[in-house]
């Protein structure tokens, strides 16, 4: 996975045995980056030459023997893939799937037919790769990438995990480590043993060296496909800022602790990208096609994010979308939603300003604002004690959506106002 | 809403079954159920079987070869056992289906899994027993079963689910050392259930839960005992 | 590693359940919930009390489940999961309704529809009743009936959910009856 923090957190105490071993070699990671992800760029002559072996360690049409541990995990993941067909979270929209698949095939070339990519309706920045070629891409990731090159960054990274057999190698390492520990701890007690059983309930997270290799190979794949590898560092910078702003302290800490090179990663990616581009022609970013494809989905994807209640993280996502000039009406509206729901000091004013901005942008562009806009403005006016304004907003809402499921609630509030 | 999965249910069951007997089965039959197997058409649902190898530390590693062996063995023995009834047997996987129908069937299987997990959760471990179900067994797939009845023109559906694990050499060594130290360490185990659903009303007429720490589905010689355990008290 | 969390949750539930187990609720008997409400049921239920929470089921807690959480104060979560929304003083019934839908999205439910929703009054307090339809991750359809009431700046939530096929309807009318008739103590 590109991001593993969710799983790492969930593993929690059970994995503490393991992560302790890893973390102890790393310095404390208390200083979170707040500099907006700025990286000082080395001059061209200071570029470190990069050597990457991007050759896949498996052939096209590869299938492991059934008698191996690898064969076992392929079976398990094949079964999971079959059950995925019934999942309500599976996005079945053919256009969107074909688009993501198109980008993947541009990267994977002959291996394209060995990979099945599924778009899954889930918030958060995440994608995953199973050893059998099953790739899942979350809609939350599609929301966050700003152009096709950034999408290719993640797909290339996941593809690299597949090419380099990372899942199975990692499973073996962890299984063998825990087995050795099991013998060691047997003398001292059984408690540790219980934890390891749970920790190894499934394929475990990639190691840091796996991640670094996937980054490097991914960049080469991007480059070969004609995508600008410089977008990888841009994307990483965005993600880093988002996690630094997340309300979830566990997520933040485990992320920066498990990616101790978090600060370094952006720099490394940038150095690699510049090295790859040192003499070559211009590469493609392809912003327009991605934005065009995703436009119809943004509202539902943003609703999913809002429901997570991680307002700090969402604020960064919306800020980036705003800076990039994406969907101004929606972005302003969701900023309003975010501040209204968060309700911290000063949020009411921010919410109102955002909603009003959404209203204005909609008028300028002659498009409809989201139907909830006037209802939200009414609720804010109520909180501010502006009864008359609330009445006007609610009436406007009912006029636009007389059959709304919550019309009875609005009418009740209107009665209470008068 | 509380969501079960196999692991959850298994862990609860293990808490409930303090002593791991060699092979335990627990059969439940519907209260007013009259099963008239003879002359009927029985639909065998896709076997839900997975075999694992237990690492020294206790991690479950899926084994494709063992799973294939177990599936073949169960299938063969099942054919033999069902062959003793005068029934017509039809297998879900023998009939080609459109993608849409396949999804619809998988949802019926999911539904049965949810109901089955609830039965196991509440019926097997005493501390989770429901007072209203004390002397009652009336779980059903209701209308959800109609799809199977109509599509296969069948009267009953048989569901079989097994999760099975075997100690690796490393695990066996750990268990042996544990014994010397006086600590009991869990080795491989089998947990499974089989159920027979009346497709006319969706009622689960017979439900059998199996727990065992000794059987072996991988071998032709030992598999029949496990399958017969699963089919204990099979109605008809 | 989700599995681990679930196993711990299951073990915790099992252990807690082990303390008292499920009790039988007989029909037509006055039942008190969280020392805040009382009502009568029309059929037998199984009830499990766990700390502040109260769970009721007919056929199994994964088939249909009614849960009651009373006295949720300003700044407290409305449910026992990581992403649960937080109740705030001064929320209108409309915002409460919104919060329930958000909670369904946050718990990975899909294709959520509000089938019906209406404001209610209970003992002079404002609240709502709403019915939702959604699909879980595996694509199985569920329905949910939710009642929320705010009294003395505290939110009481009663939620009933079940598999749309058969199990939900087994308890629905009884639950709706409870929701309408339950009186603050």
UniProtKB/TrEMBL annotation, chain A:
TPR repeats lie at residues 371-404. It comes from Aestuariispira insulae. CDD domains: M48C_Oma1-like (cd07324). GO terms for cellular component: membrane. Keywords: Hydrolase, Membrane, Metal-binding, Metalloprotease, Protease, Signal, TPR repeat, Transmembrane, Transmembrane helix, Zinc. Residues 94-271 form the Peptidase M48 domain. One of its GO terms (biological process) is proteolysis involved in protein catabolic process. GO terms for molecular function: metal ion binding; metalloendopeptidase activity. It comes from the Bacteria. This is Peptidase M48-like protein. SUPFAM superfamilies: TPR-like. Its cofactor is Zn(2+).
Automatic annotation (TrEMBL), chain B:
Residues 1-21 form the signal peptide. Keywords: Signal. This is Lipoprotein. It comes from Aestuariispira insulae.
Automatic annotation (TrEMBL), chain C:
It comes from the Bacteria. Keywords: Signal. Residues 1-25 form the signal peptide. PROSITE patterns: PROKAR_LIPOPROTEIN. This is Lipoprotein. It comes from Aestuariispira insulae.
